[in-house]
Amino acid sequence: MKHFEWTQKLSLFTLIVFLIILLSACGKDQHNHPELKTGKDFFEYHCAACHKKDGQGMFLKGIPANVATNKNQAEIILHIKEGSQSDNVQMPVYKNMPDDEAQKIALYLLLLKKNFFKNPDNQDKVLLKR
């Protein structure tokens, strides 16, 4: 009987660890973080785990380079808060994100894009767009 109880405890522990990892992965829709102030802060908190800090995504994992977006500021905000009409987009939707936070992320992303394409070495890069 003691072996069975130990196995149950181990299974419960494993489940708890899995849930913690799952909940802390990319796509944090938690917005009680007063220490975050700038678009960079918000981008790194919500987006960088999947899109990387430079916004170049992870091509081999199918995560697009959001620095290659063709969206304007309003469209980026809409994409963040309401998602995409496309069935193949797996990015989480941040329905609870305050408008000013989404705006700061959008402005920072557009700045990343501008700086990325200013670099002549990046002009010919093929990026997975969305």
Structural features, described:
The chain is mainly alpha-helical and 130 residues long. α4 packs across α5 (99-118). Residues 18-25 have low confidence and may be disordered. The longest helix has 23 residues, at 2-24. It starts with a helix and ends in a 12-residue tail after the last helix. It has one domain: Cytochrome c-like domain (Cytochrome Bc1 Complex, Chain D, domain 2, Orthogonal Bundle), CATH 1.10.760. The protein is 50% helix and 0% strand.
CATH topology: Cytochrome Bc1 Complex, Chain D, domain 2
Q: State the major sheet.
A: none
> Could you say which structural class the secondary elements and strand pairing correspond to?
mainly alpha
CATH class: Mainly Alpha
Distance between the termini: 55 Å
E-strand count = 0
Brief account:
The protein is mainly alpha-helical and 130 residues long. It has 5 helices and no strands.
Key structural traits:
5 helices, 0% strand, Cytochrome Bc1 Complex, Chain D, domain 2
Give the SSE map.
Elements: H1 2-24, H2 39-46, H3 48-51, H4 73-82, H5 99-118
Helix pairs in contact: 2-5, 4-5
